[in-house]
UniProtKB/TrEMBL annotation:
It comes from the Bacteria. The keyword Membrane applies. Keywords: Membrane, Transmembrane, Transmembrane helix. Signal peptide: none annotated. The gene is mucC. InterPro entries: RseC, SigmaE_reg_RseC_MucC. It holds the Pfam family RseC_MucC. The chain crosses the membrane at residues 82-101, 107-128. This is Alginate biosynthesis regulator MucC. It comes from Halioxenophilus aromaticivorans.
């Protein structure tokens, strides 16, 4: 389970809104000095707001600005990452292959690849929109921090 500490910014009947600071893994990476991602991560440290279900706990047990720990299963992160990055690329490569086989012009293979990439992105977006209510994909409230 990947855990993160956050601060409660709103309390609802069945959930909490938790503010977290997005962090980069660059602090642990040995190539951080020669990587452009580390530079971008310094500018991207903005708060993220996450809606976390109380899972039957009473909202009065928590108060605003209280530090809480939330977590999400590692398998959810891995599967989501693979789906977001690999599925559109796989569809793009298939579309390029089909475009090359059907048309002799390289331009049509390029257009097919762009269409495949766009279609893959739309399918991924639709999948995540459909599974937004799936509780197994949502972060869970572990408890008070500290």
């Amino acid at each position: 389970m990947i855990t993160e500490t956050g601060r409660i910014v709103a309390i609802e009947d069945e959930s909490l809104w938790v503010q977290t600071i997005r962090k980069s893994a660059c602090a642990q990476c040995s190539a951080r000095k020669g990587c452009g991602q580390a530079v971008l991560a310094q500018f991207g440290r903005e708060p993220g707001y996450i809606n976390v279900s109380l899972n039957g706990q009473h909202p009065s047990d928590y108060q605003l600005d209280q530090a809480v720990e939330i977590g999400i299963a590692e398998q959810v992160i891995v599967k989501s990452t693979l789906l977001i990055y690999l599925f559109p690329l796989l569809l793009m490569m298939i579309a390029i292959g089909l475009g090359s086989a059907m048309f002799e012009a390289e331009f049509m293979a390029l257009i097919s690849g762009i269409a495949g990439l766009g279609l893959g992105a739309l399918i991924v977006r639709a999948f995540f929109a459909k599974s937004a209510g799936n509780q197994s994909l949502q972060p869970i409230l572990i408890g008070r921090a500290g």
